[in-house]
């Protein structure tokens, strides 16, 4: 082969690369809520190419394909946890309906061009489905008259969720360590989970400086950081409890991988009232619970 032929081949390769199919972005929300509508987008530029197919995979298994020259052009494949709305899906996006915990996984978009380039490009991103608790946590403990120096034994149980909630104890709005915290074994794969935490507290006169002793249990689920979970290690002891925040809901998941973190907190309250001068206090378990925050921006 002459040097001229070689340069022609190199030039043709460069031009083919410059003017052929290019994948600009795959947009998969990092987390969504169970039951949401979720829009997955694959942004690409065909340049001088013609589209042969756009295909979506979950965990390396195909569930949707768009082939413009086929009739019909859309094809969906049965997969547990995946329900595609064909009316709102096309060559560059797929709408998933009523997502469940089984919808979580690794999603990949693959775009292929027709001849002569036969270019194929792909990208992938992970999505987690979160199931928030439907009820606040519950505190259980013996209702009786306590003397200063007595031990109060309390248990806090979160409502079912996924991932499991992290439980934190606060005494008079100061965080204290739990005696134990455990997640109950799930009854089956992809099941919701329950967290249980215990607190053993010795009643002291200083607890009643304002005439009452307040114990709170706060359940937290957050997506802050690299993973979805119950808040990681949480704030260190002796920090004030989190402040209330407004309730916000989005049923259509945001279309950005730079999605703001979800920060969910609900609390249960256990109140001891009385006077330290009498050396005793009456325990009242409040039936009412307080919504601290449910923030999904």
Automatic annotation (TrEMBL):
It is a single-pass membrane protein. Residues 1-20 form the signal peptide. Residues 234-245 have a biased composition (Pro residues). Gene3D superfamilies: Immunoglobulins (2.60.40.10). It comes from the Eukaryota. Keywords: Disulfide bond, Membrane, Signal. InterPro entries: CD80_C2-set, Ig-like_dom, Ig-like_dom_sf, Ig-like_fold, Ig_sub. Residues 226-246 are annotated as: Disordered. Residues 35-128 form the Ig-like domain. It is found in: Membrane. Pfam families: C2-set_2, Ig_2. One of its GO terms (cellular component) is membrane. This is Ig-like domain-containing protein. It comes from Laodelphax striatellus.
């Amino acid at each position: 082969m002459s040097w001229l032929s070689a340069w022609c081949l190199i030039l043709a390769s460069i031009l083919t690369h410059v003017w052929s199919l290019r994948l600009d972005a795959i947009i998969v929300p990092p987390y969504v809520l169970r039951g949401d509508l979720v829009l997955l987008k694959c942004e690409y530029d065909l340049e001088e190419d013609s589209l042969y197919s756009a295909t979506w995979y979950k965990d390396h298994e195909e569930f949707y394909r768009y082939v413009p020259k086929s009739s019909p052009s859309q094809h969906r494949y049965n997969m547990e946890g995946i329900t595609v709305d064909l009316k709102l899906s096309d060559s560059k996006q797929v709408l998933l309906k009523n997502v469940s915990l089984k919808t979580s996984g690794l999603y990949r978009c693959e775009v292929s061009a027709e001849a002569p380039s036969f270019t194929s490009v792909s990208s992938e991103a992970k999505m987690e489905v979160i199931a928030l608790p439907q009820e606040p946590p519950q505190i259980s403990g013996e209702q009786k008259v306590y003397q200063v120096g007595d031990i109060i034994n309390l248990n806090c149980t979160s409502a079912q969720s996924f991932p499991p909630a992290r439980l934190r104890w606060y005494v008079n709005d100061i965080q204290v360590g739990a005696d134990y915290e455990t997640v109950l074994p799930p009854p089956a794969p992809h099941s919701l989970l329950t967290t249980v935490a215990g607190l053993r507290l010795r009643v002291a006169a200083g607890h009643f400086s304002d005439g009452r002793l307040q114990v709170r249990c706060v359940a937290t689920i957050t997506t802050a950081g690299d993973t979805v979970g119950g808040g990681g290690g949480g704030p260190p002891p002796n920090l004030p409890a989190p402040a209330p925040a407004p309730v916000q809901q989005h049923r259509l998941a945001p279309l950005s991988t730079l999605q703001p973190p979800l920060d969910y907190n609900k609390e249960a309250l256990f109140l001891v009232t009385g006077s330290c001068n009498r050396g005793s206090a009456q325990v009242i378990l409040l039936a009412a619970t307080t919504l601290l925050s449910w923030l999904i921006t």
